[in-house]
Amino acid sequence: MPRDDSHLPHALQGLRLPMIGSPLFIISVPKLVIAQCKAGIVGAFPALNAREAEGEHPLLDTWLTEIREELDRHNQENPDHPAAPYAVNQIVHRSNGRLERDLEICAKHEVPIWITSLGARVEVNEAAHSCGGIVLHDIINNTFARKAIEKGADGLVAVAAGAGGHAGQQSPFALVREIREWFDGPLALSGSIATGEALLAARAAGADLGYTGSPFIATDEANADADYKKMIVEGGAEDIVYSSLFTGVWGNYLKDSVRKAGMDPDNLPTADASSMNFGQDREKPKAWKTIWGSGQGIGAVKSVGPASAIVDRMAEEYLAAGRKLAAEFS
Ligand SMILES: Cc1cc2nc3c(=O)[nH]c(=O)nc-3n(C[C@H](O)[C@H](O)[C@H](O)COP(=O)(O)O)c2cc1C
């Protein structure tokens, strides 16, 4: 039976798999986004990944042209398997001095899906709506979820425990349940959704979509160091540490990368939120250059390969798991 996604905004309907390839700082570049969209899931990147040198044409503008042209070409050649739409992530934090300019560029390109992080603002939602886009705002608890919808976001990304990069601490089951008590709009769930079984569980819990990042680090298209990709392939949940030290926000990181930087991942001090900085000069201190983010779900990643292979694997697992459970209820 086809999936009923008629309650979702048009941009989120008809995906091959109900999934978003989540935005990854530094790692998500047009090559990866295009591969994700062609494979049939929403591909996303942070606007801040597109950094031009001083005085040069905005790289974000160039990237958005490249993505749109490549997806248009794909759609003309593959009318039966059109690409999924893409999303751009905006860090809505006072230290992001490019925000206004980036919003204008995204509105000019009529970006279909806008993902906002670290602050819900009415003007950002209005900019997205002015060009027909939808906004998904990421949150780590029910209070932030309510604020985001009050300020005009169309949907939510619930970032639960075990997610890569900045992550919450709440169980996905608790978080989705609390949100679903008052919100029936688009809801994606983030945190260790690295298998088709986990994606099915997210749907069963009440989410519309899975939101997956870390497995895509170990892909040919990802802009990541070969050692980083290897660490993802070799790691599992026990190799992840939750810390606020590196950005001022709590997040999950690979313990081995912390060790390589000369620190003990099991004895890290905490940092205060005032150390957050998402400006153009968002450079990590030298000792932290190689601190690598990852969620707990990487045990499912067995090799480095094309992004499409992850989508294919998850699609097969999703179908098999769905059929198995359906048999129980038939
Ligand atoms: C290395 C890394 C960088 C990330 N950068 C961003 C970012 O710039 N913006 C953002 O909204 N989320 C970012 N995230 C969070 C992801 O979008 C998403 O919530 C997470 O990857 C999902 O959990 P998973 O990695 O377990 O699949 C990042 C995650 C990782 C692992």
UniProtKB/TrEMBL annotation:
Gene3D superfamilies named in the record: Aldolase class I
Domain of life: Bacteria
Record SUPFAM superfamilies: Inosine monophosphate dehydrogenase (IMPDH)
Keywords: Dioxygenase, Flavoprotein, FMN, Monooxygenase, Oxidoreductase
GO terms of molecular function: dioxygenase activity; nitronate monooxygenase activity
Pfam families tied to this protein: NMO (PF03060)
CDD domains reported in the protein's UniProt record: NPD_like
InterPro entries according to UniProt: Aldolase_TIM, NMO
Stated family: Belongs to the nitronate monooxygenase family. NMO class I subfamily.
Full protein name: 2-nitropropane dioxygenase
Source organism of the structure: Sulfitobacter alexandrii
